[in-house]
Structures are given as C-alpha cells and as structure tokens.
Amino acid sequence: MYMGTLNERPRVRDVGLSVGTLPPGPTDSITDVTGVGVGHETLMRGDSVRTGVTVITPHPGNIFTDKVPAAIFVGNGFGKLVGLSQVNEFGEIETPILLTNTLSVNRVADALVGHILSLPGNEEVQSVNPVVGETNDGFLNDIRGRQVGGAEVAAALHAVSCKPPDEGSVGAGTGTVALGFKGGIGSSSRRLSSEPRGFTIGVLLQSNFGGTLTITGVPIGKKLGRSYVRDSLSTHDGSVMVIIATDACLDARNLRRLASRAQLGLARTGYNAANGSGDYFIAFSSSKTHSSATASMKNEEMTPLFQAVIEATEEAVYNSLFRATTVKGRDNHVAEAIPIEETCKILQQYGAL
Fold it and tell me: Are 54 and 185 in contact (CB under 8 A)?
C-alpha cells in the first residue's frame, strides 16, 4: 500500500496495479519507442498562472527534412488543433508536436515555426506546418493571460530528453482536471515481441476530460463521491490530447486506424466524450528513422497493435491522475489529487490489487 506524500506520488504499477494483458516496455512510457523525446516547461506564477507546454519529438534530428508518417483522428472536434488538415492530407509530420492551453495555441505555433526556420538546412523554407494541440485549463489557470510563448517553447524544446517523461501536474498538464480529480500528463507503453516482428507502442496524453473514474473496471469515482451526476469537476466538458508513437512500419492510413482505437482506452477509464470536449489522437511511426524496415504492415497484422494502444492509453490516464498533485489556482479554485491510499483500499476490496 502506498503511504507517501504528494511529493512522492507513484505510478499505478508502483502500487501493484497491472493494466491489461500485454507487457509494458522497459520504462512503461512513450520514450520506450526508440528516438522519441519529451520536454516540459511548467508555469506556476502567483495565484493564477497554472499552465505550461509539452514537446514530443519523433526523433532527435531535423524533423522538417526527415519527416515521419503520421495521422490524426478526431474523436470530437471542439478544439484548436493547428496542423490537422495538412497532416491528414500528406500523411506525415514535419515538426515536433507541442501541447499547451487553448488560448496559447497561436503563440506556441508561431514560436514553433520560428524554431523550425532557424534550424540548419532550413534556410530556404517558406512553408511550415506546426502541430500544436491544446486543452482548456481555465478552471485553475488565468488562460486569458496567454502566458505561454516563445521563451517557454524554447525552454521545453531545450528540455527534450529520451528519458521517461515527468508526469502529472507538469508542462501542458499543469492546470488540467480529469474525471473529477487533478489531471495532467500521463504516459505508458506496450511491447509486442511476437515473431517475426517485435514492436513498441508508446502513449503520452494530456488528460482534461469529464466522466466518472473507473480503474480496471472498479468504480473508483462513484466510491469516492466524484461521479458525473454529483460532482461539478466530473461534469465539465474538458478535452484530451493523445500522442501515439510506434516503431512499427505503418503508413498514414493504418496510423489513423491505430489512433482511432485509443479512444477505446479512454472509455475504459470513464471518459464520456462530452459535447464540448476536444478529443484528438495523433499517431506517428518512427520506424524509417532508425531501422531497415521498408514494407508497411498489412491490415491483418494490425490487431495486436490495436490492443496495445488501447491498454497503453488506459494506463496513461491512470498515471496522469496518480502522479498529479493537488493544485490551487485562479479564483481560489482547487483541483484535488486522487487520494492514493483510499483508492488502493477500494481496488483491494474489488480484488484488483
């Protein structure tokens, strides 16, 4: 049983919870996919700034000159995702993927364009398709202040690392709320080692959506009194951004199919796909940047990858909640972290631990 403080919050596997049937990668995070990096810049200023920016890079090189196959699936389109139409038209991504808050999207996109133009080899570039997603953190954050700009983007890009990413109330997840509790950044991975090919699926998400929390089938939200019909933090529309990385050789069509399955993982957590929720799923393949794989996988080979992304997405949500800390912000609003000890007791009562 976990007995630590808010400064020592665990991931779900740290308390003995196993999600799904497939094994995780070595670090159970998106950076288990070779070459993928993550960086955060967190803004906690005064009484009302609770926001940030998170960067996901498909590989450490110049992404504009070494593009990767990609696709975007829209679960519910109430959002401000920059770059969507070109990604789905051409089937590739040419910049890092950045996540932030709703009203900072345009400032972040402009900073990302400046970064790409500044890279050696891009001196003659005259068109850039930045990919920037968002969720609305206005419950805790002074979102109208549009605090995230060039300096914060530069700091997050500088912080990119292939180490397991920080989770919870960091980066783009600093001010988010999910399923009645403090949400944030969460990650997970699954390893498929069946012959003749072995692949990794990694997920990183920004949780900020409504519903009643369920953990591996256990009605945690209902037991803790945070249900959709009783608690205002569970009923807000919110949004979610899900980033899916794989080293499997997939074309854009099958990447879109893979991205669509992540929504099934969200559903397992109690996510309700609310009317005003912006739900976006971005999938990319890094296979051609670090392996000799050339032939795209066939349709009939996709089912194990579908299972992997469902499980990794589900666990990433749980990690975003377990790792998040209680945050007080704008107008004295408070988003409480999920109580670890009480949650574990309920899981034990249902035989999940």
Answer: yes
Give the Cα separation of 129 and 57 in Å (integer).
15
Backbone angles phi, psi at 13, to 5 degrees: -70, -20
At 166 the three-state DSSP class reads: coil
Rg of the chain over Cα atoms, rounded to whole angstroms, equals 19
As annotated, the active-site residues are 239, 277, 279
Q: What is the residue whose two structure tokens read 């999910």?
A: 178
Tell me the two tokens of residue 313. 């997405």
E-strand ranges in 78-213 read 92-93, 97-101, 131-135, 177-178, 181-182, 184-192, 199-209
- Residue pair 100/150 in contact by the 8 Å Cβ criterion: no
pLDDT-derived band of residue 244, with 50, 70 and 90 as boundaries?
very high
Assigned CATH class of 6-349:
alpha beta
How does pLDDT run across 87-116, given as a tens digit for each residue? 999 999 999 999 999 999 999 999 999 999
Q: Where along the chain do its domains lie? A: 6-349
Question: Taking the complete model, does pTM exceed 0.90, yes or no?
Answer: yes
String of b and e for 187-225 (b: at least 16 CB within 10 Å)?
A: bbbbbbeeeeeebbbbbbbbbbbbbbbbbbebebbbbbe
Torsion angle (degrees, nearest 10) of CA 287, 288, 292, 298: 60
Structure tokens at 285: 């393949």
In sequence order, what are the beta bridge partners of 45? 49
Looking at residue 3, its pLDDT comes to 34
Question: 120-148 in b/e burial notation, b at 16+ Cβ within 10 A?
Answer: eeeeeeeebbbbbbbbbbbbbbbbebbbb
Helix (H, G, I), strand (E, B) or coil at 25: coil
Residue 205: pLDDT above 90? yes
Is residue 116 within 8 Å of residue 84, measured between CB atoms? no
